[in-house]
């Protein structure tokens, strides 16, 4: 922890509120969960996965990388490979309240992209007569049709922060829960606290290149269709042995797993890339 804090020395600003969120992806009854944190201040905020941030920070230090490698090896050798920290939930969303702009950092495989979009692309319709209590706060419903999905959110007017998980912004209060109409993706707050913690800067901004959002999502979807497409043009024999996440498997098994993901109806948080 001391090493982590010393490496994370560059910061944009200080937060006023820290919110933890559960992000869930529910596909045919199979639920995947990830933890995210929102640090929000007067001028902006950052939404991130703490494990991904930790791994990105230690990637800049040789000693930290070696310590991580030793830890990963020990866990693999003891049959606990699934406990090795990974950055599979590595999207960052930085919001600039003065510019009214979001900057998104996202990646898959070895493709790293960054793009901006204005707050104005997200508009909310408040449903004032619909309320529910979340974490002790009375929340009001709001709806938004955003980048291909119909979202229902619950915001707390008592917390006058026009922010929320992921790309959500602009509601008249902090968004504590958001679910899209198909029930596949959802964000739910699991804790709120005041803080004066520093909002981290992007420690590995050097990894990312500017990309068009639509083109990036189209490329990511093609990767899911065949995750081996970048290896020998995707022409690996079906029985070719490869290692994925520390486990040996075959090219065909990798492709079957990807096809199952798409056949189950899975799609991204945004779906307007389908043309």
Account of the 3D structure:
This protein is α+β, with helices and mostly antiparallel strands and 275 residues long. The protein has two domains: 155 residues, outer membrane lipoprotein receptor (LolB), chain A (Clam); 52 residues, no CATH class. Helix content is 21%, strand content 40%. The protein contains five helices and 16 strands. A twelve-stranded mixed β-sheet has the order 8-9-10-11-12-2-3-4-5-6-7-14. A hairpin with a 2-residue loop joins strand 2 and strand 3. It is globular and about 60 Å long. The N terminus is likely disordered.
Number of helices: 5
Query: Hey, roughly how much beta strand do the residues contain?
Result: 35-45%
- Going by helix content, strand content and strand pairing, the class is alpha+beta
Number of domains: 2
Instruction: Give unreliable regions as ranges.
Output: 1-11
Major beta-sheet overview: 12 strands, mixed
Overall, the morphology is: globular
Helices and strands in order:
Blueprint: H1 2-7, E1 11-14, E2 17-27, E3 30-40, E4 44-48, H2 50-58, H3 62-77, E5 92-96, E6 101-108, E7 111-118, E8 125-134, E9 137-146, E10 149-156, E11 174-180, E12 185-194, E13 198-200, E14 209-210, H4 213-225, E15 241-244, E16 247-250, H5 251-263
Parallel strand pairs: 7-14
Antiparallel strand pairs: 1-13, 2-3, 2-12, 3-4, 4-5, 5-6, 6-7, 8-9, 9-10, 10-11, 11-12, 15-16
Offer a quick outline of the entry.
This protein is an alpha+beta fold and 275 residues long. The protein has 5 helices and 16 strands. It has 2 domains: 155 residues, outer membrane lipoprotein receptor (LolB), chain A; 52 residues, no CATH class.
